[in-house]
Amino acid sequence: MSQTSDTAARRPTRVRVPHLARWKAEGRRWAMLTAYDATTAGVLEEAGIPVLLVGDSAANVVYGYSSSLPVTLEEMLPLVAAVARGTQRPLVVADLPFGSYEASDAQAVTAAAALMKAGAHAVKLEGGVRARDRVAAIVAAGIPVMGHVGFTPQAEHAIGGYRVAGRDDAAAERTVADAVAVADAGAFAVVLEMVSAPVASRIREVLAVPTVGIGSGPDCDAQVLVWQDMAGLNDDSRLSFVKRYADMRGVLRGAAAAFAAEVEDGSFPDAAHSFDA
């Protein structure tokens, strides 16, 4: 066997859109986390996370904006490239940021193509019935699309803030219609954000494609969280649906404080961390 073929044989199989369809048919649930850099993406790959989202939440956790609205396509591209370069197996999905797809189908396809050129394997966009033409246009261009309905953060000001979707009959029907619209337009999966659990369960049964929950109860095919929320790096406790699996903020703070203390008292670097002449 040649060195090239041997390397190819050892390379992990990349998760693709058809895998997710098969997992739904098999009843297999899966996890998705956000990632914005090569190092973190690599760790999440080692943990077995099959799908990574380069989310527009980078606006908050990477760039320090107060919402997801200011982040631009140009700011997203290097993050997508880093995550793609840092992994071999996960499916890398990239968010289309606010302002990059609303004006026209042509604008949406151009922005989606830029994310794919940066290394993404699929794109995600927000909106239900209102976004179905955009979804269809991007899919027609040969680019896989993940939909996003329920609470859509890019429309926060139009919605009137953080609101759970589907709590009354009319809202439930609108949410179901939104999910069906993007799936019918060709989306390979649909994120359900802050959708009431009964409505999310109903959508899962209605759609042939996987549903990805975030604050939408247990009856989704997959679940997604921002990794900094999941790992306890953020100290924002507003989101009641976030479960923190570690205290990474405390760990990092403690490590930095220990480093500073050793530098100040002269105990670092010691002989073990220095070079001989």
Automatic annotation (TrEMBL):
Primary subcellular site in the record, as a coarse category: cytoplasm
E.C. code: 2.1.2.11
Entry function: Catalyzes the reversible reaction in which hydroxymethyl group from 5,10-methylenetetrahydrofolate is transferred onto alpha-ketoisovalerate to form ketopantoate.
Organism per entry: Aquipuribacter hungaricus
Family: Belongs to the PanB family.
Binding site for Mg(2+): 56, 95, 126
A molecular function GO annotation: 3-methyl-2-oxobutanoate hydroxymethyltransferase activity
Reactions the enzyme catalyzes: (6R)-5,10-methylene-5,6,7,8-tetrahydrofolate + 3-methyl-2-oxobutanoate + H2O = 2-dehydropantoate + (6S)-5,6,7,8-tetrahydrofolate
Binding site for 3-methyl-2-oxobutanoate: 56-57, 95, 124
NCBIfam families: panB, PRK00311.1
Recorded coiled-coil stretches: none
Record InterPro entries: Pantoate_hydroxy_MeTrfase, Pyrv/PenolPyrv_kinase-like_dom, Pyrv_kinase-like_dom_sf
UniProt keyword Protein biosynthesis, yes or no: no
Name of the protein described by the UniProt record: 3-methyl-2-oxobutanoate hydroxymethyltransferase
Subunit comment: Homodecamer; pentamer of dimers.
Cofactor note: Binds 1 Mg(2+) ion per subunit.
Transferase as UniProt keyword: yes
